[in-house]
């Protein structure tokens, strides 16, 4: 008791000679708050805690602002990286329902099958009663070229997916984002083309323009297109779509004019997508295709979409592992250090205040709660704000995170990013504030007041 009295006397002496008006006001409010245990436990008491936390954060606005900015930047980096990894994991994850099967040439990449395979493969090679017929199908052919054959610069190159227009919306990934009216225009105009926004910008063309493409893969098959639409922003920004009949008819025309088929005439079909309801149907369809005598030269294989995409991503494995096992942990550790340093500086500057709190009756656990509360509020709000900016900024501007991995050019930021950001902010704030909070609760009033007396 004598020690407490001495501490209170020293406290009063400090108030009269050393403390500014803000600290006096805060101390008196804290004393009033601490005076009634019932009040502390009530909604009013919790509000007082919150007000105290806000005032402590306001004491050094520059430090608070810099900590927020640093936290937001690191959450932004981690969220963007996690978006890429999350999307790739979804793509590679095996589904149990509504599967896409991919049929390609067995022994060669890129796949080059004769177009004569298309009709029967689209039916899952069903030959007898009881065979499984896919729910839907889609054929892929590829046509690439340049609008400026004299230079062949990157900006003039365009790469087309040649397919049936009616299959784009129901079968393509994110096909529902395509405008049905635009698809109808492509269907009604044989030489029509739908081209991605970024590809159009690179070529300095717009919807309604006509372009002549000098082919780079089908020699002497040069085609004229009318641009009837623009791909939705996002995954297909660099892609283009055309009617498969336009390409096939051009190859037939070459045969008539040259009295011989084009060298690639029997190698135009890249792959066939089949939609099946479940794994059992996939296994049946796969068996029908593999065992069919119609696909021997060249032989074909049938695999799920995730299995088919996997080999294309294999060359990026080390790069993605660097993201997952190095960049994310380093960013997470940096965030913890940023929060820890900021809170530690704040605690060291406020040792006298911590001593006053103890003299007024605050227990060590309550002091720790105040310090950790400051960090959680700062980290949580910064993480959530960063996640919101990442989500709306990337998705509205680019359609997602613009990053090239194999044939994926953009990765939409999922709504999960909001809780990713909040969890990152709160987690790093909690880990970074435990040490400073423990230090604050260990302050001894007699030692502090002895120094300032």
Plain-language structure description:
The protein has 453 residues and is of the alpha+beta class. It folds into two domains: 2-89 and 317-452, no CATH class; 108-298, no CATH class. The chain has 17 helices and eleven strands. The chain has helices at 2-17, 21-35, 37-41, 43-58, 61-92, 118-122, 168-171, 180-188, 197-203, 244-258, 279-291, 305-313, 317-349, 351-359, 364-397, 417-441, 445-452, and strands at 97-105, 136-146, 157-163, 192-195, 210-215, 223-230, 240-243, 271-278, 300-304, 401-405, 408-411. The strands form two sheets. A six-stranded mixed beta barrel has the order 2-3-7-4-6-5. Strands 10-11 form a two-stranded antiparallel sheet. Helix 1 runs parallel beside helix 17. The longest helix is centred in the C-terminal third of the chain and has 34 residues, at 364-397. It is elongated and about 105 Å long.
Give a brief description.
The protein is 56% helix and 16% strand. With 453 residues, it is α+β, with helices and mostly antiparallel strands.
Number of strands: 11
Q: Roughly what fraction of the amino acids lie in strands? A: 15-25%
- Helix share of residues? 55-70%
* Shape label: elongated
Please give the order of strands in the largest beta sheet: 2-3-7-4-6-5
Main sheet makeup: 6 strands, mixed, barrel
Gap from first CA to last CA: 20 Å
Structural class: alpha+beta
Radius of gyration: 33 Å
Estimate the mean pLDDT confidence: 83
* Tally of alpha and pi helices: 17
- Which stretches are low in confidence, meaning pLDDT under 50 for 5 or more residues running? 1-24, 33-41
- Helix and strand string, N-terminal first? HHHHHEHEEHHEHEEEHEHEHHHHEEHH
Q: What's the number of structural domains?
A: 2
């Amino acid at each position: 008791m004598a020690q407490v009295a001495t501490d209170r006397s020293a406290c009063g002496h400090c108030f009269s000679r050393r403390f500014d008006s803000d600290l006096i006001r805060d101390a008196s409010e804290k004393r009033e708050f601490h005076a009634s245990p019932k009040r502390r436990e009530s909604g009013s008491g919790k509000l007082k805690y919150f007000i105290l936390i806000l005032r402590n954060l306001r004491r050094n606005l520059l430090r608070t602002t810099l900590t927020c900015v640093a936290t937001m930047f690191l959450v932004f980096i981690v969220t963007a990286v996690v978006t890429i990894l999350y999307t790739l994991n979804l793509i590679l994850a095996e589904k149990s329902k509504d599967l896409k099967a991919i049929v390609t040439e067995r022994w060669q990449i890129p796949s080059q099958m004769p177009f004569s395979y298309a009709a029967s493969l689209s039916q899952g090679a069903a030959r007898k009663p009881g065979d499984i017929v896919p729910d839907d199908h889609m054929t892929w052919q590829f046509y690439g070229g340049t609008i400026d054959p004299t230079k062949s610069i990157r900006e003039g190159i365009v790469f087309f997916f040649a397919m049936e227009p009616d299959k784009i919306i129901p079968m393509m990934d994110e096909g529902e984002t395509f405008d049905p009216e635009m698809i109808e225009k492509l269907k009604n105009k044989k030489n029509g083309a739908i081209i991605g926004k970024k590809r159009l910008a690179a070529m300095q063309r717009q919807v309604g323009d006509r372009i002549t493409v000098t082919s780079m893969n089908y020699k002497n098959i040069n085609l004229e297109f009318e641009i009837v639409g623009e791909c939705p922003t996002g995954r297909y920004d660099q892609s283009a779509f055309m009617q498969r009949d336009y390409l096939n008819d051009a190859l037939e025309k070459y045969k008539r004019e040259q009295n011989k088929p084009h060298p690639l005439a029997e190698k135009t079909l890249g792959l066939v997508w089949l939609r099946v309801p479940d794994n059992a149907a996939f296994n049946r369809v796969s068996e029908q295709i593999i065992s069919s005598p119609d696909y021997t030269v060249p032989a074909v294989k049938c695999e799920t979409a995730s299995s088919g995409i996997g080999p294309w991503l294999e060359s990026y494995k080390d790069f993605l592992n660097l993201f997952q096992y190095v960049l994310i942990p380093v960013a997470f550790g940096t965030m913890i250090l940023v929060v820890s340093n900021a809170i530690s500086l704040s605690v060291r500057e406020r040792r006298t205040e911590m001593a006053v709190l103890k003299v007024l009756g605050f227990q060590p656990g309550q002091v720790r709660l105040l310090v950790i509360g400051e960090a959680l509020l700062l980290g949580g709000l910064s993480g959530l704000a960063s996640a919101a900016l990442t989500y709306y900024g990337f998705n509205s501007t680019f359609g997602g995170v613009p990053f090239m991995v194999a044939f994926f050019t953009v990765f939409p930021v999922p709504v999960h990013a909001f809780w990713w950001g909040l969890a990152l902010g709160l987690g790093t704030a909690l880990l970074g504030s435990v040490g400073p909070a423990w230090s604050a609760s260990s302050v001894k009033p007699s030692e502090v007041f002895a120094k300032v007396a």
